[in-house]
Structure prediction request, 441 residues.
Amino acid sequence: MSVMARHAYSLLMRLGQPLLRRKLARRGRQEPAYLEAVDERFGHYSQPAQSTSELVWLHAVSLGETRTAAILLKALRAEKPGLRILLTHGTATGRAEGRALLQPGDIQVWQPWDSPAAVARFFNHFKPRLGLLMETEIWPNLLAQARQRAMPLLLVNGRLSAKSLKQAESMAPLSRPAYAALTAVYAQTEADAQRFRQLGAAVAGVFGNLKFDASPHEAQLETGRRWRQAAAQPVLMFASSRDGEEDEFLKEIRAAAQAQQAQEAMNSGAKTTLAGFKALIVPRHPQRFDEVAALVAQHGLTLSRRSSWSGSPAHSQEAMQADVWLGDSLGEMALYYGLSDVALLGGSFAPLGGQNLIEAAACACPVVMGPHTFNFTEAAELAEAEGAALRVADMAQAVTAGLALLHDAPALAQAQAAGLAFAARNRGATAKTMDGLRGYL
Prediction:
């Protein structure tokens, strides 16, 4: 049954290749990076073929996984200074972030499309001796061929939500052999580990979340804090917001301001719709920056974009007069957390599973999260229990709670301290992961 399921899946993946090319062409109109080296996705490479099996393959599908991979990669290079890395990604943001991780001798390409031929060309061309998949990436043909080639393939910092488990179980003839093909899984939590075991994966350790071992970008964080102080106004941030959530956020901050009859003048003397605080939106996906900017205008609010600032927003009349700031840059989350007093957690107000709240805690920025945090269940529960995050039922409650915290200095200070303690208390996953990997290195 499982063989038949993979044959059917492989046929669909072969037939789907023209659709993928069209999808990439459409996506490339907004993000030109998707038009870069498209043939790599089908196993055709400009890089010379490898004659020996010395590369360690590290797969980080998107931006978040690539940032986590950077933590592990730093430890790997410290352990094996001459290590050569084959770095793969599925998204343009991941690929762009990954470029900064490369050293001479390393190779970066797109993840191969999961058809038998593309996967075979990938393995034959690069001949990796070890594969490390970050967090969630399970592809049936990729895993099956790695096993056939006797190449160790490990899932590192593994997470598997109850929702993902249910989806995998609904496709058991395809998913169970894939999970069983993993050499080992290093899970984030015992709950993740139990779900992996239910699918037949070999769990070799429960090591915590590598994201706790990331240190915020100190220069960015300090710059953000200076800017916040200079602006002399509290900032309510919507961090890693997702499609549909910004509309609700803008409705609620507008309603809150109107309820307070907030028609105060800014330092410039100009009237703003939102008096007493600034709203900062940092969308999760960069291709949506213009869409969110248009949405702000539709709500009758004025906007200033980070990309238009030459320095502190306090030095820009446009920024100080604007109701909403748009964080339309990549790689500056520490700056945005430093600039903000409180952050609403994107992806948690729609059934999307939430985004990573660990970086916010490490930057001493308290988090208000919605009901949907299944992608980071344990981290969200721990943060809530320790006072680093507050859970609410919907966006209306989130804005109310966020604004209340902005103007309650003792409660804000307590939540900031709780965030720092929470982040510090859960470090150590990198050392445990390296202990597990040494036998493979």
Notes: The chain has two domains: 14-209+428-437, 218-425. The longest helix spans residues 63-79. Residues 218-425 form a domain with the Rossmann fold fold (CATH 3.40.50.2000).
